[in-house]
UniProtKB/TrEMBL annotation:
It is found in: Cell projection, Pseudopodium; Cytoplasm, Cytoskeleton. Residues 1-119 form the MSP domain. It comes from the Eukaryota. It holds the Pfam family Motile_Sperm. Signal peptide: none annotated. Central component in molecular interactions underlying sperm crawling. Forms an extensive filament system that extends from sperm villipoda, along the leading edge of the pseudopod. This is Major sperm protein. Keywords: Cell projection, Cytoplasm, Cytoskeleton. GO terms for cellular component: cytoskeleton; pseudopodium.
Length: 120
């Protein structure tokens, strides 16, 4: 299972004329002896939000950090109601050393959505 910190929402504080960044922790908490998970992340509004790195492999209990960037935008004139970060993951085998961001395109995977809040 993929655990994110923060767990359910991400908040950016204004002003939004300049971009800002926050760090998010990802952790695989599937249990000792679990196989790695492959994960990918995206935003519903990629012009406003980006995630770096956008994908990777995560070993059990070896956290990784991603940087969420909120690019500058006009807060008063933009529709921000449906901004979410989407994390998808699936179990992999120990043979998956050739990982690419396309790994999640096939097969069964899990998904987690985090709402993005903007505090003017």
């Amino acid at each position: 299972m993929l655990l994110t910190e923060p767990h359910s929402m991400v908040t950016f504080n204004g002003p939004f004329e300049e971009g800002s960044k926050i760090k998010m922790k990802l952790n695989h908490v599937g249990g000792e002896g679990s196989t790695p998970i492959s994960w990918s992340a995206s935003a519903t509004n990629p012009n406003r939000l980006s995630i770096e790195p956008a994908c990777g492999l995560l070993e059990y209990n070896e956290p990784k950090y991603v940087v969420i960037t909120c690019h500058s935008f006009d807060f008063a004139n933009e529709d921000i109601a449906n901004d979410y970060l989407k994390f998808e993951w699936r179990n992999t085998t120990e043979k998956d050393t050739d990982y690419s961001c396309n790994t999640l395109s096939d097969g069964l995977f899990r998904r987690k959505l985090l709402h993005v809040l903007y505090n003017p």
